[in-house]
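In the lab's daily routine, each protein ends up as an entry in a very long ledger. A line of letters takes care of the sequence, but it says nothing directly about the fold. The fold becomes a row of whole numbers, each drawn from a learned catalogue of backbone shapes. The protein below has been through that process, and both of its lines are reproduced in full:
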Amino acid sequence: MRAFFLRWFVLSLAIFIVANITNLIYINNLKTLILGSLILGILNVFLKPILIFFTLPLSIMTLGLFILIINGVVLYLVSFLVSGFEIQSFGKAFLAAFLITILGAFINWIVKD
């Protein structure tokens, strides 16, 4: 349970940093940030593996780079599901997902459970 909350915190922190440093994501308030990061985490656990499975040949052909597109799709989907969590275009969602992934990995490396 502790690992879940730590990962959720790291994801929330990464989204918060990307939203405040860039203009890729607009987050209305703290409640929206927490709900958005929770839904993104849930979609990453349940939807993302299904998408990766169905696009596996394409992911193999691109040496895994297509997974970056899937990350952008999942983040863009969160903007439709959570009111106040806004991303204007898929391009911005793609860049934001890339930055969130990099920041999340860096923060996880620092925190190390």
